[in-house]
């Protein structure tokens, strides 16, 4: 029988989240039931719930930065056991059959990966996310959280961590490379930590210098204000890789000018509006403009193990569930350092 659990849901695009109950499916042979301990608040939660990326079905429970403990496993589960510390990120299923799934890139499933919320699962149900007491997920899409990571600081790694780790790894951030991070928010602060741990020379490009002390503390070698026009003159042609974490329209041509020959600007921030780019920002220096979406399950596990090895967790502000609407407003105002995490025990 399905299990009823407490959650916070968006009843409509223009309404605040409300306390409610939802049903979680019975545990199937390959399923894992997780008691959620912490759920991170991602800007994507707000975009989705407010319909910025297209229509969704309401009521909607968001949250795809989930850390908790296994409380039940299906009869044929081999990857996880009751009591394991685990996490769930931005996807809970994929077709398993297409070329990308077979290659271990489930996030790029050619038939569409199943998002942790606001998606249609393989059984026809609408997925509901982590602002809730429990979740049931097929074992292949559950990752192990190392003992060295506390669950509250680990939760944001399931989105903010992997979303920045994957492009840093893919485009070769490491010793001898110069990496710039645009934006010092939830994603940006993790990009700084990860790029530094990989051995790159790291520069933060932020609107102002108000977070400069934090940026340098987290591992940045340099910090510049993009509101100062001299920044773009002084840094022209400097970087091998730029990770743009901003979920708003920016002047891409200005940032592309900061790339060295063969440099790449990767967008991981996902604004609702188009981002125009001039082709002559790319051609003269053989520059690339790319995008990257989270990471595979294997890469997410690799990222968690890397973070445990290097002592990296998100900088978090833990809140009660009844503070979620205030937290969303603060996220929109960039008033968080650097990730809100819901203590889901407050849902009881």
UniProtKB/TrEMBL annotation:
<keyword id="KW-0560">Oxidoreductase</keyword>
<dbReference type="Pfam" id="PF08240">
    <property type="entry name" value="ADH_N"/>
</dbReference>
<protein>
    <recommendedName>
        <fullName>alcohol dehydrogenase (NADP(+))</fullName>
        <ecNumber>1.1.1.2</ecNumber>
    </recommendedName>
</protein>
<dbReference type="InterPro" id="IPR002328">
    <property type="entry name" value="ADH_Zn_CS"/>
</dbReference>
<dbReference type="InterPro" id="IPR020843">
    <property type="entry name" value="ER"/>
</dbReference>
<keyword id="KW-0479">Metal-binding</keyword>
<dbReference type="InterPro" id="IPR013154">
    <property type="entry name" value="ADH-like_N"/>
</dbReference>
<dbReference type="GO" id="GO:0008106">
    <property type="term" value="F:alcohol dehydrogenase (NADP+) activity"/>
</dbReference>
<dbReference type="GO" id="GO:0008270">
    <property type="term" value="F:zinc ion binding"/>
</dbReference>
<dbReference type="InterPro" id="IPR013149">
    <property type="entry name" value="ADH-like_C"/>
</dbReference>
<dbReference type="InterPro" id="IPR047109">
    <property type="entry name" value="CAD-like"/>
</dbReference>
<dbReference type="InterPro" id="IPR011032">
    <property type="entry name" value="GroES-like_sf"/>
</dbReference>
<comment type="similarity">
    <text>Belongs to the zinc-containing alcohol dehydrogenase family.</text>
</comment>
<dbReference type="Pfam" id="PF00107">
    <property type="entry name" value="ADH_zinc_N"/>
</dbReference>
<keyword id="KW-0862">Zinc</keyword>
<dbReference type="InterPro" id="IPR036291">
    <property type="entry name" value="NAD(P)-bd_dom_sf"/>
</dbReference>
<feature type="domain" description="Enoyl reductase (ER)">
    <location>
        <begin position="12"/>
        <end position="342"/>
    </location>
</feature>
């Amino acid at each position: 029988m399905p299990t009823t659990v407490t959650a916070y849901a968006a009843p409509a695009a223009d309404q605040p989240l409300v306390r409610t109950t939802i049903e979680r499916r019975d545990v199937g042979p390959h399923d894992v039931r997780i008691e959620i301990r912490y759920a991170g608040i991602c800007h994507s939660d707000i975009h989705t719930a407010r319909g910025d990326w297209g229509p969704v079905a309401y009521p909607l429970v968001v949250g795809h930065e989930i850390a908790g403990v296994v409380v039940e496993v299906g009869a044929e589960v081999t990857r996880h056991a009751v009591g394991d510390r685990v996490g769930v990120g931005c996807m809970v299923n994929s077709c398993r059959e297409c070329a990308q799934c077979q290659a271990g890139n489930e996030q790029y499933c050619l038939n569409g990966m199943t998002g942790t919320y606001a998606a249609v699962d393989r059984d026809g149900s609408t997925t509901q996310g982590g602002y809730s007491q429990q979740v049931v997920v097929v074992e292949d899409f559950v990752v192990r959280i190392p003992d060295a990571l506390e669950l509250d600081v680990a939760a944001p790694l399931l989105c903010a961590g992997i979303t920045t780790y994957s492009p840093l790894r893919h485009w070769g951030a490491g010793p001898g490379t110069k990496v710039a991070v645009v934006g010092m928010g939830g994603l940006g602060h993790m990009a700084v930590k990860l790029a530094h741990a990989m051995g790159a020379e790291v520069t933060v490009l932020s609107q102002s210098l108000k977070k400069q002390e934090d940026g340098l503390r987290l591992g940045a070698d340099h910090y510049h204000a993009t509101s100062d026009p001299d920044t773009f003159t002084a840094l022209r042609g400097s970087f091998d890789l730029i990770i743009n974490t901003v979920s708003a329209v920016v002047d891409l041509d200005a940032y592309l000018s900061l790339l060295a020959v063969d440099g790449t600007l990767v967008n991981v921030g996902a604004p609702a509006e188009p981002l125009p780019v001039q082709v002559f920002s790319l051609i003269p220096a053989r520059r690339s403009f790319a995008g990257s979406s989270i990471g595979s399950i294997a890469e997410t596990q690799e990222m968690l193990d890397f973070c445990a090895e290097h002592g990296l967790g998100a900088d978090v502000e833990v809140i009660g569930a009844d503070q979620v609407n205030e937290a969303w407003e603060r996220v929109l105002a960039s008033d968080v350092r650097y990730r809100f995490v819901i203590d889901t025990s407050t849902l009881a």
